[in-house]
Amino acid sequence: MRPSRHFDVVVIGAGVAGLTAATRLAQSGARVCVLAKGVGSTHLAPGLVDVLGYDPERVSSPSEALPSFLDAHPEHPYATIGLDGIGAALEWFGRVVDAGPHPSYRYVGDLSHNHVLPTALGAKRPSALVPETFAQGELVARRGTSSGPICVVGMRVLRDLHASLCAANLERDGVAARGVQLEVDVGRAEANSLGLARCMDDPKFRATFAAQLLPLLHADERVGLPAILGLRDPHGAWSELERRLGHAVFEIPTLPPAASGIRVYDALRAALRAAGGRLVIGASVVDVEREGDRVTAVRAHTSGHDHVYGARWVVLATGGFTSGAIELGSDWHARETALGLPLRGLPGEGEPRYGGDYFGEQPMARVGVAVDSSLLADGTSNVLVAGAALPGAEPWREGSGDGIALSSGLFAARTVLEREGATAAA
Amino acid sequence: MTTLSTDVLVIGGGATGAGVAWDAALRGLDVVLADRGDLATGTSGRFHGLVHSGGRYAVKDPDAAKECAHENGIIRKVASACVEDTGGFFVTTPFDDPAYADRFAAGCKATGVPCEEIDPAQARLEEPRLNPGVSRAFRVPDASIDTWLLVWALAEGAREHGARVLPYHEAITINRDGDHVRGAGLRNNLTGEQVDVEARITVSASGAWAGRVAEMAGIEGVHVLPGRGIMIAMNHRLLNTVVNRCQMPTDGDIIVPIRTVSVIGTTDVHTEDPDDHTVLQNEVDAMLDDGEKLVPGFKQARALRVWTGVRPLFEDRKGGDSGSTRDVTRAHALLDHRERDGLGGFLTITGGKLTTYRLMAQDTVDAVCRQLGEDRPCTTDVRPLPGSESGEYLHINERLRRREETLQDDQLVCECELVPRSRLEDAARRRGSFDLDDMRRQLRLGMGPCQGGFCIYRATGILHGLDGIDSAEANSVLLSFLRERWKGVWPILYGDQVRQARLDDWIFQGVLDVGHLPS
Questions:
Q1: Which candidate from A164, A322, A357 shows the least CB-CB separation from B502?
Q2: Residue A17's closest CA among A343, A369, A413?
Q3: Whose CA is closest to A136, among A167, A158, A109?
Q4: If phi over 0 gives left and psi between -120 and 50 gives alpha, with beta otherwise, what is residue A282?
Q5: Is A211 helix (H, G, I), strand (E, B) or coil?
Q6: Closest chain A residue to B516 measured between Cα atoms?
Q7: Which of A 32-71 lie inside 8 A of B, CB atoms?
Q8: Closest Cα of chain B to A320: distance in Å?
Q9: Partners of B28 in the β-ladder
């Protein structure tokens, strides 16, 4: 197979990890192409950047908790990346959003403390870096944060956030809260939060929405809305609602899909393009060419025909089991599906793959692509691994998903740049 | 404590017990039906959903075959709304003894099981995924049945005729007065309340648990050998016809299409404990391999859930034990303890199979009437169950049709199984239950490919909004649903279903953070 185009780096996967690695490399002048079967979990997850939420108790300060966490979990991606790398990743991401396509929209927070925000069930959930549109849902009183009773706003048309249940759980956990329900007409019986976010992009809809909500609010209440504050101009939609209502407003994550997650995708994609990177969605990697321990080209299947992309470096950011990047067959053999890389953390023959208690230990959860301390995949000299494909983490329990994605994406980019720099110097 | 007085107390709310309640109520008797859990949560709710044509027993157990053939015709009429007229095939695959086919055909003829040999090409035409190596094929009137629809229709019919139906009421004492049983003491397992039922006749229809209930009455030797079998529901209808391997019945030799899934069954392992729901890895592997023999590519479908059920195989004997349960008769046993043990007012009905539930109920209520000295003829063979009056079968497209009617007006709570919000709210109000597992059985909520990933939060919010439960109870029903679901998911978690399970983990543990709800 002969490459029809050549890149310094081919990144496989367009989630947070892949787009981060690609953008960072493109910003440094590398010729980068991202190949992805489809969009990543950005469209499903709410876009809150969790770094370390639980260890196993709720973490109030990731920067304080991480050193002992790294010691206790030498197999965790963070142990390779280190505290500084994680902090740098959050700062980098903040700048990407600041420069992004959503005017004035920004993220707030850092490693020093976790925001504690309500979930759609009314649980208190920690996140390090959150969109400004979520921040006023803070549930743990601190200097400079919002306080006051919460009014959770539900809509019958939206099945994916139940305001009264959310508020009742907050109330039981010591937060003054109540739920109200708006009747919003979207011309059909049901809409998800993405559909409603598209409605919110329309100023007329926002005006009607605010007018309907205003009389239901009590003095001093903070208003918790499902995360529907638009895709185009979330800052504008948010500040307009605050102005019209005269109350602090914040978003609460709903069941997928997630408008706030799509904003993350949009911001990263814009940054990648601004830096000259390419992004091909709908390209699934079917084959690779190797020379010794190097992958020299990637063949991707697209709707028309196959293309071969030559590459000096490959970043594998395809995700874990959720995305299908790692597959467990009916013969109980697991494999990495794009490049066939070796895995780490697999339970041995006869050992349990899963535990019978849903909330107990689940051995398969920590399986990932085997890497060395530079995130270089075992058996290769130019394939780096980032994001949920990495072994050793259980992000949905630790509260570490986007933290791992961002910091490992940047780490992989840095490894490439360092080695290329070394090559150039040599 | 509440005291109820009735003619007949039925202990056990499976198909047999509900069938007894329906039969007795139709005969004008006053009935109380009690189960320790929800209705149809024992063996009746834990099988593959087959209405036997009798073909499976045609060679091995001709009496059972005859019974099945007869009852199959009746169920199709009186419970049509619960039955899918799938039809069935018996096929000789390359893995089966080719000589069995002739014995099978002869057995069907001798036992009256309608059976027609067809060209294997015709079978393949109708079921293209069938193993191309099939050398002989027979058509029989197998069907599939929604067991929860059936049992609830029986209970509803009984209730319309005055019966009182008490799910979650466990018998904790059988009350004797000398050599006569006078009823039982029940405990409401939801509230802890005691309910004393005074009954002229007490019927134990507790299947695999019959020995335990008999012991409460002081009767020894009611020996029910629980035969544990596993079943796996595969996503989608891999077949639309029940397909059996044409061989002596063995493990993993039948696939039953039912509602949105195809169920493969089953194994048969002796167990001491009827509540033993162990699923062994080698059983799962063997079952999946067996699926491949009937439908090549079977394992590439998503395995949604595995469960076990226990057959109540009855042996009236004392002491001794046999290793295999496959060879114990499938026939049912009615024990009149007045004749057997000198204890009046108490009957045990056990053994049998779902297909013969009606016959078992008829035999039982006949015996009830004999003890009461009353002549009340049975009518369950001609009287349709509530909902089955039109005689129309259940169709797989039923929900889609109903959905089309309310497309713009009614929200879907569960997209996989097309459960609208109004049905959930109605069911919760009607049942007075806010248990998501009850709703699952009632509505198939959360039974589809996503295994509740999306609908369970929604349903919890909706049930909480009905003011039936506070948030602590809402959390608890959600968590218990997740724990219960996982038991049936993890042993078969491979392929695309791993992706689904992991997405569900993200939703529940990540986005909703159910692990850190206020206690």
A1: A322
A2: A413
A3: A109
A4: left
A5: helix
A6: A123
A7: 41, 44-46, 54, 58
A8: 9
A9: none
Averages of pLDDT over runs of 10 residues in chain B (519 residues) are: 96 98 98 97 95 97 95 98 98 97 98 98 98 98 97 98 98 97 97 97 97 95 90 96 96 96 93 89 94 96 95 67 47 92 96 96 97 97 98 93 86 94 94 91 92 96 91 96 96 95 96 95
pTM over 0.90? The answer is yes
Cα separation, A17 vs A412, whole angstroms: 9
Contact A172 B471 (CB under 8 A): yes
A333 touches chain B (CB under 8 A): no
Using CA of residue B477, residue B481, residue B483, residue B487, what is the dihedral sign?
positive
Identity at B236, one-letter amino acid code: H
How many Cβ atoms from other residues are within 10 Å of residue A276's Cβ? 12
- Give tens-digit pLDDT for B352-361: 999 999 999 9
Rounded to whole angstroms, the Cα distance separating A111 from B207 reads: 60
Residue A100 three-state SS? coil
Single out the residue of A90, A88, A154 nearest to residue A122, CA to CA: A154
Q: Tell me: the pLDDT tens digits for A72-129?
A: 999 999 999 999 999 999 999 999 999 999 999 999 999 999 999 999 999 999 999 9
Using CA coordinates, name the residue in chain A closest to B280.
A352
User: Which residue of chain B has the CA closest to A356?
Assistant: B487
Rounded distance between C-alpha atoms, residue A300 and residue A290, angstroms:
15
**Which residues touch A345 (CB under 8 Å, ≥6 apart)?**
A75, A363, A366, A367, A368, A391, A392
C-alpha span between A241 and B301 (Å, rounded): 48
Task: Determine the Cα–Cα distance for residues A44 and A259; give it in Å rounded to an integer.
Answer: 8
Residues 6+ positions from B45 with CB-CB distance below 8 Å: B14, B147, B148, B151, B309, B441
**Contact list, A188 vs chain B (CB under 8 Å):** 408
A189–chain B Cβ distance below 8 A for any pair? yes
Most A CBs within 10 A among B498, B503, B514, hence the mutation to make, goes to B498
ipTM above 0.95, yes or no: yes
